[in-house]
Structure formats: structure tokens, C-alpha cells
Amino acid sequence: MQAWRPPMGWNSWDSYGTTVTEQEVLNNARFMAEHLLKAGWDTLVIDIDWYDPTARSHGYNADAPLILDEYGRQLPDPERFPSAANGQGFTALANKIHEMGLKLGLHVMRGIPRLAVERNLPVLGTGFHAQDIADLQHVCVWNPDNYGLNQTHPGAQAWYDAQLDLFASWGVDFLKVDDMQTPFHSEEIAAYHRAIEKAERQYGHTIDLSLSPGGWVSTQYVDFLRENAQMWRISDDLWDRWEDIYQQFARMARWAPLQTTGHWADADMLPLGHIGLRAERGDDRQSKLTLDESKSLLALWCMGRSPLMVGGDLPTSQDETIALLANPALREVTAGSSENGEIVRERIFGTWGDESTYRGELIVWKAKAVDWADGTQTAHPGGWYAALFWTGEDAYELGNTIELQSVVGIEAASKSKWTLSDMFSSMPGKPTDARLEGEGSDCVIRGTIPPHGVIWVALDPQ
């Protein structure tokens, strides 16, 4: 089953922007295979401008001398990707990735390269040329590489078909297609989906489609998105700032109830670990998120069943970050949960009714533990997951606010005794003080939530 669970992988954008090299991809692949594959991480995605020999940090190049074949299709820059020399594309790299038990993904922009239009290159398998099919009006506002395609012209579909045929021939498993959703280009999305389906039939392997970016994407599009993609972004780019994480609570609350097997709303990459080496934003750094903020990010993404695509350079990230990523709870919850959603969101004040004493928000999510779609049995039969988030700047001590029955249900809480276990128990350091107190309808979840932190637990009936 294609994308039966939310994909888990690495993307070069947060670390290397437009400039990642073959060796850096392989370094991350080897690290993933050795340290993270058993925890569910299995995909490497080369982000934008792998075909631009003049790619640089912090921006894009107008009129770049893109590497194209005779039909205007993008080819890897052989200086950064030596195995792609002489038109070999990503075949050799994909083979190495596959030998490690991993998958290879690429980023590509909507439309056709402007350079192909300037040269008026032929469209493979047709009598058309690039200037016949280009739409010079519907262009990306932030990247100068491509023109749009005129989807009323039959050559437009043929060009996407030819592009996807090339990518599939290399062995590509995953495609992140950008400038698709803001604004929402339904005809382009459908055309790309058709091209992927044709390539899958031709080469006999699946290609997951991820759509970007995600600003203002309406849940009204959900049926169309499920028909055409495995992943779709629900926000613009997210970086290592708490305010970026905070904005995702409301978005994930909208989308979590709509997650379905094989089709996933994506809360964007995880800006964890060593980022900014040669990226678009900021300098070379370990993520500015605190450990507690990083835990909140991961718990929210998992409880909302978002794909997990980490952006930090894995071999040079801190051990603490790798321990977070290696936590088996990440795959456990994304692969094996249902009825996911926000159940409590309340503003908390030091003095009731006095706005000047506002402290933060208490946000609670629940999810039911279920068997995985691949047949794996859940580790918590009959159990539930709960994530209690606190957005304030100081620690928050839970009183009798969050009752067990508010998570597991009134009848279930009264019929069984329940135990609580920490979903971050594999992490080094001080364990959570989360606990259950009381019985039946009086049973509550107690504990101290750190600033911008989370108590993430599994609840099991005995």
C-alpha cells in the first residue's frame, strides 16, 4: 500500500538550501541507514536547484544556466553530483540509496524551465515545442527557474509525462513538487498525478507525490488532494522559532481529523539538528529550539499524523537530536493511531478574568492506539495516547484539570484501572513526573509541563 503511514525522511533544504552535493546526500543516507532506519526513517530528499550549477546560499539565480537535456528536462549538476556526468542522471545515486534500504526523493518546480522555452526545445514524443506549451503569465512569484504550463494544450501533459518518465527511469521514489498550492493549481496537480501514474505503470515502482507550499490551503480541497497526492503541505516554510511551531497547533487541529491512510496533510519539515550550513535562512547553527520545544514539535506532528521530514544534517547533529529522532514512539503513533484530534484548548491566567495576567495556553490532544495498516499489532491494545502542551514561558503545574475520562471515554475510565507511560522514555535525562491520580471518574493526569513543553504519554487499561 502506497504511503500506508506518514513518510519519515530527511530533506536537504534546512541544511544546504540549493547547494547540497552528492557526497553530503550520501553522508546523510549512511547515517540514516545506520542509526535511524530501524526507527522508521527511510527517505532522502534532494531539495531545489540540483540542476543549477550556479546555485548559492540565501536565494535563487535569475537566468541561471540550468542543466537540461535536449527536451528541456532537468539534469543534475555534474560538478555537485559527479555520478550524474554524461547524462546519467541520478541512476547511480538512487542505486546506492536503494542498496542501503532507503528511498530517493527529488524536489522540482511546477512548470517548464524558462531556458527550455528560450531555446524552444522540442517536447518528447510530439511535434510541439516549449514555446507552444508555456504559460508566461502563471509563473512562480519567488523562484525564477520556470514558466507555467498551458494545461489546455496537449503538449503540456506530454511534457510532464516525459519529465516523469526520466525521473522514474533513474529510480526516484518520491517527488516534492513546489509552487502547486499557493495559489492552488488544481489543473497542474492533476496533470502531474497523471504523469506519475503513467511512469509507475511503465517502470513498475511507486512514486510518492508531495505538494508544496501550503499557505492558506483550505480543507475544502481534501477530496481532490486525496485523489492526486500522498502528501500536501499545510503551511509555508517552518524554521527553528517557537512562534512557527505555535502557529501549527491550529492548522493541525483542522487537518488531523481528515488524515487517511495513504494521504497525509504535512505540517512541514522538522528544523532540528545542525541546520543553516548553506541554507536560505540564518547562519550555520544547531537548531535554536529548546529540547522541550523540540519535543512539543515532534509530539504535535505525531499526534496529528503529519509526515516527518527532518532538515538537520544528520552526521553533525547533536546526540540529543539523534536520540529524539530514534525514539520508536514517533513511528508508533504516526503509523498506529486513529481518532486523532485536539480536545482541550484554553487560555490560562494568573488571576481569573484579568487579561494582564495571561500565562499561556493549555492544549490537549488525544489519539486511539490501533494496529498498523501493514498488520503490525499496536504496543498499546485498547490504549490511548495523550499529549498535554503548554505554550507559556514558565512551567505549568496540572491540577485536576485533565480527567482521564476526557481522553479515553467515560465508560472506559470507569471499567478499568489505567497505567501511564512516558512516550519520551527512551530519551536521556530527567523523566517526566506525569502520573495518574485517583480512580474512575475522579482519575486525573497530573504533572509539570515545562515552558513551551509537553507531557506525552500512553494510557493503557489493565
UniProtKB/TrEMBL annotation:
Family named by the database record: Belongs to the glycosyl hydrolase 27 family.
Assigned EC number: 3.2.1.22
UniProt entry keywords in alphabetical sequence: Glycosidase, Hydrolase
Protein name (record): Alpha-galactosidase
InterPro entries: Aldolase_TIM, GH, Glyco_hydro_27
CDD domains given in the database record: GH27 (cd14792)
Superkingdom of the source species: Bacteria
Example of a GO MF term: alpha-galactosidase activity
Pfam families (UniProt xref): Melibiase_2
Signal peptide: none
Biological processes annotated in GO: carbohydrate metabolic process
Species the sequence originates in: Bifidobacterium tsurumiense
Entries under Gene3D superfamilies matching the protein: Aldolase class I (3.20.20.70)
